[in-house]
Amino acid sequence: QSPGTQPSPLAPGALLAAPFKASLKNTPQGGLLELEGRAQGYPAGTKLHVSLVIAPRAPQPEPAEVAFFMTLLTQEQEFKASKTFAKRTLIPGSYTLRVELLLAGQRRAIGDAIRREYGLPRDARVLLGKLVIQIGTPAEVAAHDKAWNLELRQRLAQYQGIQQRLIALEAEVRRSGLAPSPEVMKGFLQRFREARLQQDDVVSLPGHKGPYTTLTQVRDAQAAAIKELRQIKFTPAQAHRQRAAAFLQQAQKALP
C-alpha cells in the first residue's frame, strides 16, 4: 500500500493556496491519515476543513466521503493534523484529500478579516489544496472488489433465510390461529425493517459508501432480526384472531 506522500498541487490564486503533503496508509491499529502544510495570508486560528473521499466505482456513481474534520492555522501559518481510523482498514482505491476554507464556519472576527482581505462572500468555500492518493495496486483493487461482492452475495443469501422464517411464521399463524404478543410483533417487525434497510443499502452499493461499517451494520441488523425470530412465543389464539390478522398484514408488508 502506497504511503502517498507528495506535495499537493496549488489551488488557483497564490494568496489562497495552501501547499501541503500527506500520507494515507494502513497500520496494525487501523487506517492513518497525516498531513501538514502552510497557508499564508490568513489569521492565526483560521479553521481549515479537511475532507477525504474515495473515488466512485460502478455501480456507485458518486465519490463517498470517508472523513471530514477541522484543523487550526498556527501563528506560524502552519497546519498539521493526524486522523486515526481505529480498528478500521482503508480499502484499496483512489482517495482524494482536500483542504478547504469555509467562511461560514469561522469565528466572526476571523471570517470578517478574511472577507475584507479577499473580497469573498460570507458563505464562500475556497479550495486551498488537493491531493490524490492511491492505496493498493489495480490488481489489489480488483481483488478487493471481487471478495467484497462475494461476501455481499453470501450476506444476501442469509437474508433470504430470514425471509423464509417469516414466511413460515405466517403459515403457522394461518394454520393454527396463533399469534405472538403485540410487543413481540412490534419488536420483530422493527428489527426486520432495519435489516431490510441495511440490505437495500448493500444491494445498491458495492460497499464503498461506507467502506468501514457497511458489512458490520448488516451483520448486526441481521443478527437482531434472527434473535427476534427465535424469541417469538405463540399463545392460544381463539381470542386473538384479529391480532393474528393484523400481524399477517404487517408481515406481508415487510416482505419484498
Overview of the molecule:
By secondary structure, the protein is α+β, with helices and mostly antiparallel strands. 41% of the residues lie in helices and 25% in strands. The chain has helices at 108-118, 138-176, 182-204, 214-231, 241-254, and strands at residues 20-27, 30-38, 47-54, 64-72, 78-86, 93-102, 125-135. It has a four-stranded antiparallel β-sheet, with no helix packed on it. β1 and β2 (30-38) form a beta hairpin. α2 (138-176) packs parallel to α4 (214-231). The protein is elongated. The chain starts with 19 loop residues before the first strand and ends with a helix.
Order of strands side by side in the largest beta sheet?
Answer: 4-3-6-7
Low-confidence stretches: 1-14, 205-213
End-to-end span in angstroms? 41 Å
Largest sheet: 4 strands, antiparallel
The SSE order reads EEEEEEHEHHHH
Helix content range:
40-55%
Q: What value does the Rg take, in angstroms?
A: 26 Å
